[in-house]
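Notes taken during the Thursday session

The instructor put the following on the board and asked us to keep it in front of us for the whole hour. The protein is ATP-dependent 6-phosphofructokinase. We were told not to look anything up and to reason only from what is written here. First, the residues (363 in total):
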Amino acid sequence: KKRIAVMTSGGDSPGMSGTVRAVVRQTIASGCMAFAVYEGYDGLVKGGDMIKEMGWEDVRGWLSEGGTLIGTARCAEFRERPGRLQAANNMIEKGIDALVICGGDGSLTGADKFRDEWPSLMEELVTKGLRSKEDVAPHMHLNIVGLVGSIDNDLSSTDATIGCYSSLTRICQSIDYIDATAFSHQRAFVVEVMGRHCGWLALMAGVSCGADFIFLPENPPTENWEEEMCTIVRRHRDMGKRKTIVIVAEGAHDRKLNHINPKMVKDLLSNKVGLDTRITTLGHVQRGGPPCAYDRMLSTLQGVEAVKAVLEATPETPSPVICIVENKIVRKDLIKAIQMTQQVAKDIEACDFDAAMKGRDAE
Ligand code: ADP
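Then, after some discussion, the predicted structure tokens were revealed:
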């Protein structure tokens, strides 16, 4: 029986538990054995009880759970070859040579590196006397399939990552709460949302909540943004608006990469526009809570597709990442998707914002 393991890694996102459920159940339904690796790559490096066989009923009720019930972590050891050798040894011990990973671009980069090195890791296990030739012979190829779990919606090649719509929903609910009190007191609120390199949450929250001004990393405001923002906010007030909402992405900056923080924006609204202004940093409420219906659907459909991809893979096919493009669940080249994603971050660092915006738009 083929043995397929599922793991969640990197930053958590709502829908990860549903993904594990879908992978486990589709694996069992396909006549294979399902395993879960607990605590991300930490569990893979530690082995033993951290890699557990999963039954159908072990994931009952997981679809509506937030976060990831098998845990996630950042693991320094896996970044080095000895850590990956240890991980490979633990997988061979359990007879596992297929790994479905739900995480961000860092986790998926690590996974592809692991697959690349796998044949040489097998050789090293034999030469070091850790495993016999017979142990490794049936497992000379590692099968990796990626699923993108991230609240930021920051991976190129897919329209939505697992978790981003739950997070967006939570932000909108929070801004609705803020709106009511802002209206009552005619106040301004500067709302900081997550997104270090990716302004998707800030942009879509702004559109969904009718914000007055939005600060995004990919498309920084004009050089005299202070004046521009104040003029726009004043105009909205002159038109009779009783509240002001300005959304700042965590990674917002000006066109010279100077960080724009909520305090700077608050001081401008207080001192230049004369508004009673407060700051709300939404923080981790954006990551928590139950997944929205869209993320339950996405985690289920993509989890099923990931297992199909494992079963159809050959040593020649490049590692796939499961995406959604124009409402269809599709497989894309994992490495290309990561390269395109990292290119946007590089474009931002080089202040080439036109290229960054094109990169975001690109498939
Ligand atoms: P995310 O997956 O959310 O982007 P990280 O970038 O922190 O999160 O990556 C999660 C984990 O994946 C890291 O702690 C590390 O164990 C592993 N990882 C990330 N990048 C690499 C890499 N280049 N090589 C090996 N492992 C990596």
